[in-house]
Amino acid sequence: MFSGIVDAMAQVIKIEQEQSNKHFTLRNPYTETMGIDQSIAHNGVCLTVVRNEGDNYVVTAMQETLNRSNLGVIKQGDWINLERAMVLGDRLDGHIVQGHVDQTARCIEIKETEGSWYFRFEYQHTPDMPQRGYFCVDKGSVCINGVSLTVCEPEVIGDKGYVSVCIIPYTYENTNFRHIKVGSIVNLEFDIIGKYFARMNQLYK
Question: Can you name the CATH fold of 103-204?
């Protein structure tokens, strides 16, 4: 369980393909505290630490994860947002994030707005998605690359969904939003509360 509050970034040092899996070696920002089997969100994807290698560590992504997230297009040298799992009793500063990415989105617009930044993203939309809870509401929450953000201007036009977010300077400087460009692929996790309500509506309407 995560909250969407990024606490570090790690650079991808090496990517190795093994059958359909990919092993990612990343520079370790938590050298003294990271252990084997620890769950860490990588751009919002919950992955398990499988090996420590000095100042680096290794995680493995299976084919389903690579298909559903932007880990399939990550390259050596890229920077990834990290968040360690929540500690029971801590403040929930973001929103409830599972680390289970629903799909990817593409950045289609970036504007600087007097010190902050406005990002707009486009994603593939199908008619059954609202029934499954895969939707955004204005002023609701969405997780993009592991960052808990407030939704503005959600919209669906045909087979495309759109969502915009505003990024303050602190978030811009301390996450990989500063590396996102028009055309960049990001991870989306829709709000779990919306998914539960959508499922309950299906079962008990």
Answer: Elongation Factor Tu (Ef-tu); domain 3 (2.40.30)
Residues 103-137: b if buried by 16+ CB within 10 A, e if exposed: bbbbbeeeeeeeeebebbbbbebeeebeeebbbbe
Q: Which two tokens stand for residue 118?
A: 């406005």
Give SS3 for 134. Answer: coil
Return d(Cα 60, Cα 48) in angstroms, integer. 7
Structure tokens at 103: 């799909």
Q: In whole angstroms, what is the distance from residue 33 CA to residue 43 CA?
A: 20
Question: Where do we find the tokens 């997230």?
Answer: 69
Q: What pairing do the DSSP bridges indicate for beta strands 56-61 and 8-18?
A: unpaired
**CATH 2.40.30.20 residue spans of the chain:** 8-84, 103-204
Tens-level pLDDT at each residue, the chain (205 residues) = 899 999 999 999 999 999 999 999 999 998 778 888 999 999 999 999 999 988 899 999 999 999 999 999 999 999 999 999 998 888 888 899 999 999 999 999 999 988 899 999 999 999 999 988 999 999 999 999 999 999 999 999 999 999 999 999 999 999 999 999 999 999 999 999 999 988 888 888 7
Two tokens at 62? 């299976």
Q: Does domain 8-84 have CATH number 2.40.30.20?
A: yes
Q: Which amino acid makes up residue 193?
A: I
